[in-house]
Amino acid sequence: MFSTLADHLEIVWGALVALVVVVLLTPAVGGMARRLGAVDQPEARRLNRHPIPRLGGLALFLGIFVPALAFLDLSHQARGLLLGAAVATTVGAVDDFRGLAWWEKLAGQVTAASIPVGFGIWVHRFTFPIVGIHVLPKWIGMPVSVFWIVAIMNMVNFLDGLDGLAAGVSAISAFTFALIALSLPRPEVQSSLLSAIVLGAALGFLRHNFYPARIFMGDSGALLLGFVLAVIPLQGLLKTASIVTLFFPLLVLAVPIVDTTFVVARRLKHGEKVFVADQAHLHYRFLRRGFSQVRATVYIWAWCGVLAAAALGTRFIRPHAHGEWHLWRTVASAALGLVALAASVYMVYLLEIVKLASLRVRRRQEKPSRAA
Length: 372
Description:
By secondary structure, the protein is mainly alpha-helical. The chain has helices spanning about 5-35, 55-70, 75-95, 100-120, 140-160, 165-185, 190-210, 220-235, 245-250, 255-270, 280-290, 295-315, 325-370, and strands spanning about 40, 50-55, 125-130, 130-135, 320, 325. The chain has a domain at about 5-245. It is about 70% helix and about 5% strand. Helix 2 (about 55-70) runs antiparallel to helix 3, helix 5 (about 140-160) crosses helix 10 and helix 6 (about 165-185) packs parallel to helix 12. It is globular, with a radius of gyration of 21 Å. The N and C termini lie far apart (about 80 Å). About 45% of the residues are buried.
């Protein structure tokens, strides 16, 4: 089974319709948010200097929902995905409007994640090298899938701290998923189409959300994008493919995964509450290093793009094909891997090691002044 030209055109149209819907509806959603009082006021932890409406996730939801109804094959699983997306958006919108306790939000996220899993979107089996196919029982596959969806929802939400950051990372991730889904032996056209729709919606939202933002996506948008980006691999890449494909979503979503891992580890180390917001995220570290919002956002986009390129290279450049190793393919794959590793090491160095070194320098400078 191969994807056809008609499939490719449908994927492009899905992305374009999503982009247009979000571009046109976002200003109206922003005006509604202002009238409802769903506005981010400037405060100590906020970076905005003026009141900015949130609830942008409602425009994102319509931008995904409308082309999904028009182009997707509304199978049983597709209906479960859209229903779960609606619940995720609703939970986020309620939190944007009146605020939710952490446990209320978590319960809503688990509910949203359980819907597509209940409709059959979960990891059923892996094909392990040498061992062969291993079928996962429901009592393992379904809870793991729910955990994965909830985790990615929160990771994207945590990443939404700079103008355009979460939307840009989501666009890069969706674009990568679309290409990988089409490259599978049995092309996952529906997964690719949904990825393209998310890409279009995220790009359309960037029209209003890039610095200086005129609207924020809020929890409604972050939870929605995280939900869909988590479900797409479960629906296509991971459901019946080789265990090696687990590498793809982990690499593509590495930036929010690394960000959340660092923050949670730090909070646990210092005995802080995991769900209490602070300024320990990667983007805040960039700002403390003297980066502007735009420069910090572009740096993180570039990092995500390099990792996505490494994932695509792993998929499309096959050093070991037809039982033989190919020299130039091996060199190209190794080069992409080294670039991705170097970019990640550089980011960690820039945000962690350099920070520690600068602290030591300041301490050395303070000692003579104190002695004087």
